[in-house]
């Protein structure tokens, strides 16, 4: 195992690489030519423009002001300067709450670090179990760090009571901070929602599994059903077309157009030579043709096909999927419909809040109930396989990274390995890197799995992917590293142990793996975050596009890739740090400062990124917070069970009983918070809906909602392209004779008033959903 | 362990006692004097009257018609004669579905019994592992029955594939039947609800945790909140008074009145001697006084106190609990309110369907959110303690019942024990009886625990008690008997075994406990059911009351105790038989016929009881079915895991892998059914609400709903006693300026029409809730 000096080398390497990244970032961001890579958010908001051409030609690309280079860290205070309300206004609630997760980490771990250094480190250091430990366990290697950890406390020692008391203090502190944070985020969400502008999804419900009807089309069936069952509130609906083929065509066409632009540019620069291309795959083989003509022709052909397909989709009744977006006269009506059961057959007429238009995942809108259930089953089995079979390669590679094992496996490498610096590098850097490479491949697979599961909104896809990824990290990175790291063969034994034995086995290896996790925090946390701010991939891509595809200012706008927070990947990783901190705070406190540094650094970097770079694809109004809360609690409970197991091996059985209430109370706290807060993130209460409705009715009595909602939920490929044939609005009063006539008369009157003022539309749905801050539900 | 002849003795004893009970029942039920004990249902329905006094004096009490005694079993075909629709009409859906559970048992186990006798019994019998088994395991005793069980198949034998195939067949058959039954019950419920008459709870929602308001009373606050947030649908509300003291007083007064009646009767029979009583506790000591005067005076004092308390409750604002029954203009409005969140703080304004008035558990209506959560936590811990500490005495007693152990423990009893018949009785009868006595004490404790947990309806109390009791039976009767029965010390080892070891340990003891469970089925099942039909306790109580308290025909009516299905006790017991059947169908098929006989006999008896005796306190419309379904699936999965463990010990590892998909698919089936059917039992879909509303509006356009609902949810102690001061109905239009005026004008018009016809009430709420079949939700 690594010694303190190994750790120091690793820390030096990682600090160095982090600083290199930061310096590179500091230099690159000051070059005007990179401005669109490092400040795309401002361009998208229209506040910043391309550098003016007032200066010299060189100044347009390179910044020559030396003074600015000296202050290369000045982005840090700048990142902190923007106050939170302005941040929400600027980047949305999702982003603002996302960086609060890092802040939460600081809030939890700063006091815990101080306390454990003040109490546990002295208790451990004076424990003097070290010599005995060294002699007793020759098969397992111990290091200096263990002198500061619980390993240095003799079994059965009364010093362990200090650890137990601290375990209680840490748990109570964590729960207190979690509760406060939940309350704050809930308030932020409420405030955000209350101040939101009108948006189409506030009035709209997604209806799935519309049952087939022999006499009526899907559109008519939806219309009649909601006219009858929500007579006072139903406004209109939008059927969903199966436009997946069409969407593919649009994508292909866009790529062809890129090639055309590329060759046109090329031709313009060298007007004497017309560019050629080959007709085969990727232009690698086939007949040589004139490139510009070839692509122009290809695009024309595709355009015609696209037109035909568009016609087919719009006119073929089979292209209409059994799903629809149903809009209501008021937010109240939509809230009611989204929260209630419509039919006594719970597999048809399923209603849920419509995601905001940008958030809809169109491919999954029409999966029948039974198929959905089968898909879930298959994906659950696949997830199990993925989680538990991924372990094998990781375990193999990690055993290699154990130097002693490596020397035995490849003896001829021994002289090289025994060189001091090489040894340190291998031990300090390699295990983290190996793990990292494995993990890069994963999120894509997991996202595909979530898509197969059939969720209908991008935000849901992300949260479900995050959950899967969290499970994966927990089993493979955390448990996998702890168990297979000490001995690969323990894996099999582990499966045959009793439930009380498992925490013991894991618990006893935890102190020994502290050094591994310290290097992991530095590689994945420190360097990883520093790499994030450098944005190397978007930088390269932007300059490539700029060189070959950009002709107009609009092209340059499109070449800019602002990126966004990748929730499905980032959040589970943060959770891993929470877990490490909570597990090690009672065991090996020396790990805590590394975690705190990570949280502080990441907070800075992501605050900067959110202000200057990321452009969120959708806004969910922090609906993800219950997941964050739950996963931290899971980490807390895991840490408690492992600590219980560890204490058990310390021959402190009586002391152990003192710890049993801890997980029970933590679980109760979780249930309590769930009941207290969760529904604020999942459902929309009628009181608030009514308030917003009433206010709107008072301020804009002449609003024509129908027109406002008309094209909000049209599939993106249809948008703006052709005059879209909408189903005729059935006159509900005539067609639903069961509805009492008194109501109908009244409603007709009201409708009349509204329709008289159809000129008075204040904003279009696109405008409403793109400009300004917005959340999933007002 | 018991041999085949032990079983035969036990069967003989139990058959005899069952037959004795049946004969006693046959004789007693023919006596006119017992008519009200054995046919109370008909009296309550008003179809049957007290025997006419046309015959001789003797004939009024004793039936002298000999022919009727000969046909002493003729109640059985009579019980089967009533067709199901009529049964639902007669006894309600709850009862009709309850006996379908027994029918379900027959449907599942009849084919399984046939199949396992045709396939598994021959396979086992020709296994010839018996001699080896006998010599190998001297510490554990085997019996002849094991020749027919899987114990007789040699480890690693390919005969085990027959068992695996059968396990699949049995599971598929069980799931098929379960699915069908779920569908049938769901349809019955739908049909029942659709045909139901108007009932107050169809329009009413129970609102709990009304937040305190500085300026308004609870009533005003509720009124304003719902006027604002459900402006088109809110009708009226009924605040809840804390009348628990008053209810106690009413109870005490009733008991005093009973004593007065008793002494008055006594005086009338012996007019020359005025009865006396003592003033102390239970009339045992203290001053001697004239009994009639004493009780008359006591009742008068109490009446005055009661009146004062009644005044206090009605006028003291602190006696109003922060809960209310809110009624709506339509079922649609109530369905919406019950299914949606009202406020963004999910701990206030909690809405749920109002239980039907008879079903309300008034004591629990005002528990604050945090207190409720703490109560749940405490009761969960208490349940854990109850479940796992009850094991100790049972284990002790059961070890006694193991004859060999008994001989060792009390050697001087050896001559007595070795007498053949005594031995058989002890072995066959005792363990079952002991278990039974333990279990009689339990349901009361569990019900108290559920009450502390804070549920607001009797039906919910019963289902939650049933769940707790089910857990208890599972752990203590089933697992407890299997593990502690073979060896008490296994209990401790059991806690330290691995998750894969537990099914093995339990699995290997299962075949050995078959004889114990056969006697258990006979004692608890056969004799227990026969005792149920005899109704010994109600018989005695009725005759005591009849002798001392009855003066008028109305008194006799009240003395009659029809009883009802005790769901919290009966259902978990049935589940135990399902579990036994499912576990033993692959292991020891000889147990199956005993289970089948139990289901058939119980079906007959309970059908008879439901037709002639029980009077249900409330009607929930079979909302309990999802619980029944879930618990059978739990039993199925337990049986699969135990079978897996058993096979593992048979050295058939490869064969075992074939079984792993079984529990996974079963669990998926459970999830599938839950999604497919459960919401039909929990929520009320808007489509059906609207249908019923529309129909009613068409058939009774002049109904005054407000008057109909006025007193539906008044606490029973207030009912009919005094003119109950109702809060003035706030004129909502004036007081809620936020509501758009267009709507208000319209509504005022509508209300006007309704109130003009306030004379046209069709039925009172009490009438609606008592007469005819009725379910919780229409």
UniProtKB/TrEMBL annotation, chains A, B:
It comes from the Eukaryota. This is Uncharacterized protein. It comes from Smallanthus sonchifolius.
């Amino acid at each position: 195992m690594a010694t303190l000096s190994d750790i120091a080398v690793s820390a030096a390497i990682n600090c160095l690489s982090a600083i290199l990244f930061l310096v590179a970032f500091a230099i690159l961001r000051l070059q005007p030519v990179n401005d669109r890579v490092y400040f795309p958010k401002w361009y998208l908001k229209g506040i910043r423009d391309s550098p003016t051409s007032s200066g010299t030609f060189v100044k347009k690309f390179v910044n020559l002001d030396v003074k600015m280079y000296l202050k290369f860290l000045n982005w840090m205070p700048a990142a902190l300067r923007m106050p939170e309300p302005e941040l929400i206004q600027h980047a949305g609630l999702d982003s603002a709450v996302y960086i609060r997760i890092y802040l939460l980490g600081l809030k939890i771990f700063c006091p815990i670090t101080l306390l454990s250094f003040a109490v546990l480190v002295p208790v451990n250091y004076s424990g003097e179990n070290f010599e005995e430990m060294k002699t007793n366990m020759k098969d397992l290697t111990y290091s200096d760090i263990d002198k500061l950890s619980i390993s240095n406390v003799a079994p059965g020692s009364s010093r362990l009571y200090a650890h137990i008391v601290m375990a209680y203090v840490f748990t109570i502190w964590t729960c207190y901070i979690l509760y406060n944070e939940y309350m704050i985020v809930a308030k932020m969400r409420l405030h955000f929602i209350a101040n939101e502008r009108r948006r189409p999804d506030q009035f709209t419900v997604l209806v799935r599994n519309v049952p087939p009807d022999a006499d009526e089309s899907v559109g008519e069936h939806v219309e009649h059903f909601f006219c009858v069952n929500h007579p006072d509130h139903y406004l209109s609906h939008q059927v969903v077309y199966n436009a997946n083929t069409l969407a593919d065509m649009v994508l292909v066409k866009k790529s062809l157009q890129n090639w055309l632009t590329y060759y046109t540019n090329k031709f313009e620069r060298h007007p004497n030579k017309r560019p050629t291309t080959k007709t085969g795959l990727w232009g690698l083989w086939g007949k040589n043709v004139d490139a510009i003509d070839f692509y122009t022709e290809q695009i024309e052909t595709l355009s015609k096909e696209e037109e035909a397909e568009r016609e087919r989709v719009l006119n073929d009744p089979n292209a209409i999927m059994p799903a629809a977006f149903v809009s209501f006269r008021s937010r109240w009506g939509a809230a009611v419909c989204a929260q209630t059961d419509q039919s006594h057959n719970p597999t048809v007429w399923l209603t849920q809040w419509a995601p905001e238009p940008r958030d809809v995942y169109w491919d999954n809108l029409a999966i029948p109930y039974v198929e959905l259930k089968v898909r879930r089953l298959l994906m659950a089995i696949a997830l199990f396989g993925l989680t538990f079979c991924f372990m094998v390669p990781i375990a193999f590679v990690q055993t290699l990274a154990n130097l002693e094992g490596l020397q035995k496996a490849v003896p001829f490498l021994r002289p090289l390995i025994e060189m001091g610096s090489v040894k340190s590098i291998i031990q300090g850097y390699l295990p983290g890197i190996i793990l990292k490479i494995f993990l890069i491949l994963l999120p894509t697979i997991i996202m595909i799995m979530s898509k197969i599961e059939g969720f209908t909104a991008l935000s849901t896809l992300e949260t479900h992917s995050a959950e899967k990824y969290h499970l994966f990290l927990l089993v493979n990175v955390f448990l996998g590293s702890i168990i297979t790291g000490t001995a690969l063969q323990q894996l099999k034994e582990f499966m045959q142990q009793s439930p009380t034995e498992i925490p013991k086995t894991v618990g006893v290896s935890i102190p020994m793996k502290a050094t591994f996790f310290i290097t992991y925090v530095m590689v994945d946390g420190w360097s990883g975050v520093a790499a994030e701010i450098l944005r190397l991939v978007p930088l390269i891509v932007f300059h490539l596009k700029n060189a070959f595809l950009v002709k107009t200012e609009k092209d340059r706008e499109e070449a800019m890739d602002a990126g966004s927070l990748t929730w499905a990947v980032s959040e589970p990783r943060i959770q891993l740090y929470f877990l490490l901190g909570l597990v090690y705070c009672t065991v090996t406190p020396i790990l805590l400062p590394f975690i705190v540094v990570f949280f502080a650094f990441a907070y800075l970097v992501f605050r900067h990124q959110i202000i200057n770079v990321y452009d969120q694809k959708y806004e969910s109004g922090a609906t993800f917070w219950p997941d964050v809360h739950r996963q931290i609690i899971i980490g807390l409970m895991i840490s408690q069970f492992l600590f219980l197991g560890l204490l058990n091996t310390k021959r402190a059985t009586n002391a152990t009983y003192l710890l049993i209430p801890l997980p029970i109370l933590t679980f109760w706290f979780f249930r309590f918070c769930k009941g207290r807060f969760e529904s604020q993130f999942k459902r929309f209460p009628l009181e608030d809906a009514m308030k917003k409705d009433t206010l709107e009715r008072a301020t804009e009595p002449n609003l024509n909602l129908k027109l406002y909602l008309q094209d909000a939920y049209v599939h993106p490929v249809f948008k703006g392209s052709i005059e879209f044939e909408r189903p005729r609005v059935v006159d509900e009063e005539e067609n639903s004779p069961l509805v009492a006539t008194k109501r109908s008369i009244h409603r007709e009157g009201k409708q009349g008033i509204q329709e008289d003022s159809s000129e008075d539309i204040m904003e279009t749905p696109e405008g409403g959903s793109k400009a300004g801050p917005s959340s999933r539900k007002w």
